[in-house]
Amino acid sequence: MSRWHTNVADASGRVLAKAGFTGTGTSVRHADDGTAVAYQVYALPKEDDVLVPID
To answer: Quick one: which of 41, 21, 19, 18 has its CA closest to 29?
Structure first.
């Protein structure tokens, strides 16, 4: 399972981390007006998955 949030919503990242999600990188998506927006991407690993946290 994966989730993402904008870089301005740091509290969302803390909530995801507390729920067991691991940050996996950054993705760029486009807003309705075409503006590029950076998003932090998180994944919730399965019990047998190994994810390496990002710095």
So the answer is: 41
As a whole number of Å, the CA-based R_g of the chain is 12
Q: Record the pTM.
A: 0.67
- In DSSP notation, 5-55 reads EETT-HHHHHHHHHTT-EEEEEEEEE-TTS-EEEEEEEE---TT---PPP-
Helix (H, G, I), strand (E, B), or coil: what is residue 2? strand
Local confidence band at 49 (pLDDT 50, 70, 90 cut-offs):
low
Other C-beta atoms lying within 10 Å of the C-beta of residue 42: 23
Query: Per-residue pLDDT tens for 17-39?
Result: 899 898 888 899 898 999 999 98
